[in-house]
What does this fold into?
Amino acid sequence: MRVIDKKISINELKKIASETFGYLVKAVVDIKKEIMVIGGELHSDEETLLLEDGSKQNDLWGINLYPDKYPDKDWIEFDSIINLRPSLGNNSRNVENLEIREKIIEIVNKLIF
It folds into this structure.
């Protein structure tokens, strides 16, 4: 697993995908710190790493990245069990809040080129 707080290339992301699932990279984005963790087997592993580093639970959202689809809008999938947060009004594995989705897209696009 790797904390991404500076830009990485799409080719680096493809390499990470080839070392894990082959076609996707799991990621957890901290929308406050504007960083993410990639390369874990489970979103919960990545989430734990960020929590141990001082992130707040409510700021963390799980996504999947499909490097071969970049830069198509479908390259980011907002699906993770860690996104189930009824207390925040998020009642599914998706990120239902459009403002949070936009923030995640902004952060991912800032960190991956």
About this structure: The mean pLDDT is 97. Residues 22 and 107 are 23 Å apart (CA to CA).
